[in-house]
Specification:
By secondary structure, the chain is an alpha+beta fold. It has a single domain, classed as Beta-grasp domain (Ubiquitin-like (UB roll), Roll), CATH 3.10.20. Helices cover 14% and strands 16% of the residues. The protein has 3 helices and 5 strands. A hairpin with a 3-residue loop joins strand 1 and strand 2. It is globular and about 30 Å long. The termini are far apart. The chain binds FE2/S2 (inorganic) cluster. The site of FE2/S2 (inorganic) cluster has 14 residues, from loops.
Length: 138
Amino acid sequence: MSRYNVDVPKVTFLPENATFEFEHGKLPYREHGLPESALDVALNFGFNLEHACGGNNACTTCHVVVKSGAQNLSEMEDDEADRVETAADVQLNSRLGCQCIVKGDVVLEIPAWNRNYISEGGHSMNLGDAIPKSKSAH
Ligand code: FES
């Protein structure tokens, strides 16, 4: 099989530079986020991307910024767009890890405020005041 086959996409998380390759339809763990979403891929490989709401598009802790391969993610649905707008330090290429389905190679950066969680390797938790205030918050 060609290493460029889009049926075996690679997801890279920065700044850890952690890359995971998976075959469509072969991820066994499907409990958080949409199947084959960036969050689903991460958790399948033991990479603890934050997911305070359990991957239900009800928080923004799975916020990632797409550095390359945006065309290889599912199109953003209205529900995701409404939610990601409320994320701290939202950017033009922001997505919610639990909602963006991986269809080809992508590189995703985890916002700086959420990186401690990754390095701690912890479980889902409420970051409370550690999360910067959303620009749209009143
Ligand atoms: S985990 Fe809460 S919106 Fe993605």
